[in-house]
Amino acid sequence: MAAAKTRTSTFSRNLSTAPPSHGPGLKCGPNGTVFLSSGIPDLDKILGGGFPLGSLVMVMEDAEAPHHMLLLRNFMAQGLVLGQHLLYSSPARDPRGFLGTLPSPAASKDDKSRERDPDQEKGLRIAWQYKKYFGENQLDGQRDGKHEYSNEFDLRKPLERHFINGPRIDCVSIQDSDLSTLRDRCATFLSQFPRNDGSISCAGRIAIQSFCAPQCAYSNMEWDMLSFIRSLKSMVRSSNSVAIVTFPPSLLSPSFCKRWQHMADTLLSVKAIQDEDKELAQLLTGYQDMVGFLNVHKVARINTQVPVILEATTFSIKLQKRRYLVLECLNQAPVDGSSGTSYGTSGGCSSSSKTGNLDF
Amino acid sequence: MNQRSSNLLDEALGLDQVIEPWPLRGRVVAIEDQVETSGSFVLHHLLKRSLSPNSSNVTIFIAFSQPFSHYDRILRKLGCNLVSQRDNSRFFFFDMLKLQCPDGDEGITPEGGLIALYGKIHKTISALPEISWKNVSIIIDDLSLMEVAANGSSDYVLDFLHYCRTLTSEFDCSLITLNHEDIYSSEDRPTFFIQMEYLADILIKAEPLATGLATDVHGQLTVSNKGRNKVSNFHFKVKENVVECFYPGRS
């Protein structure tokens, strides 16, 4: 603990000299970018810090399971907890109702680490313990730097009402509004966070769920949707905000699906796993805790031309104690080449699945 | 080593021997990439070469995908200051991020959309002194977004590109475009894409490795140079200040 404190003190001093100070929930990244948290500490770590401000994140949904909601909920809840503004839009008739399902941050970190310690002594997974300590040290560091960056969320506890009822939340149903209305709403929302070189006091988050769902009147106007995404991207680029758009790729024609993917700065996809996939259960350790897979296809590279190459692109989504959302690298049992095909089913079109398909 | 290996791309493009007169003059260069492997680094490389201090090239950059600050930061790391080049009138940046062509037939008016853009390009080139006409490069990043800006009317974009191509014969300048190959691979007969490939004198394809992602090799480039009737293929690794190119197995 003490070691962590000394480390952060030097770190924050360097920070204060170079870039201007930022509001809560923001953190400096490389190449002059500023990160905000995705609400899932593990995902932040995978992406190298979080989502950079001004980036468009796209999530390809699984047609059969609502795993993208897990990402959306945490992303939205994280913003609300930090006092950031939020624009949420979904094909439901009453999008505001969804806010009631947002998770609440787990008890404050000190309490939590105290609470958890006995658990951890009982637990058998040593690797997890280390991971947790590491994460907590980092989080503490942020707090010593006077502002919080990210929280861990307890999925079984609803977010307190005063967060949800604030004036900072705007909800749009895309079922009955057309694209130009949605574009105007986004534009007015984003005009609150113009980008200038000074310090960033507040950031905005836009979450659009199931953008091309068939309930929407425009769902067959592919070019109009594409041009909405393009204009959303250019608006977000010139503001201090992050937009996250989830869409079911199966509803789009293949060539448009690719266009959407090219549009994204950060591209993720989620996949559910079948309940009793015995073959997979043999392949992977910790299979029983998994609820699905997350694939990272593209990591935002703003102000740089160097691609981010991750060690792994497929991660398992686990619900730890049925409360906390955790992402983990797949730990595969040593297998022979022939079983590589089952990876193809889990990996979608990521390159990791391509390697899985090779028979050596 | 770096110096030598980065020349592999230049060699394939014919940029290795002389930079003055600009070797790409009168040529159309098409860069194609995929979701997994972005080809924008080739654009940056060509931009850097064309703005190098020992040439008198002029570049017109038509940006549909990124704002100026993004390119500025990247090119600064490559050792080229876009702001000062802009002040010297060697670099013209057209920010088209918010361009939206009007719908339907109204789109085909001289005031709005791509026709106006072409007018702007033409005006910029003709305003230059006559000796630098040969050394103008027009760079478009990227064509798929241009299609979106034109509401999906690829014919309209194709017309625009044909017009730009006439510039290459009229002024002997070069046209460099980026597009995404995988968008069109599922279509039956992607007219737009095929025509663009036909127009191109030099075709550069950036692809991921068949074996997946690696930290040492970011992908492979295939450069087909129709003029020289030569195809070269090599691996690359993108760094902040340089693109390393090498033959397979030589990283």
TrEMBL record, chain A:
Region (Disordered): 1-27, 98-121, 338-360
Record's compositionally biased regions (Basic and acidic residues): 108-121
Pathway in which this enzyme or protein is active: tRNA modification; 5-methoxycarbonylmethyl-2-thiouridine-tRNA biosynthesis
Keyword line: Cytoplasm, Nucleus, tRNA processing
Predominant subcellular localization, coarse grouping: cytoplasm
Gene3D superfamilies listed in its UniProt record: P-loop containing nucleotide triphosphate hydrolases
Subcellular location: Cytoplasm; Nucleus
Protein source organism: Gossypium raimondii
GO cellular component, one term: elongator holoenzyme complex
Family of this protein: Belongs to the ELP4 family.
Domain of life: Eukaryota
A biological-process GO annotation: cell division
Protein known as: Elongator complex protein 4
Pfam families given in the database record: PAXNEB
Residue ranges with Polar residues bias: 1-19
Automatic annotation (TrEMBL), chain B:
Pathway named in the protein's UniProt entry: tRNA modification; 5-methoxycarbonylmethyl-2-thiouridine-tRNA biosynthesis
GO biological process, one term: auxin polar transport
Alphabetized CDD domains for the sequence: Elp6 (cd19495)
CC annotations in GO: elongator holoenzyme complex
Family listed: Belongs to the ELP6 family.
Name by which UniProt lists this protein: Elongator complex protein 6
Species for this entry: Gossypium raimondii
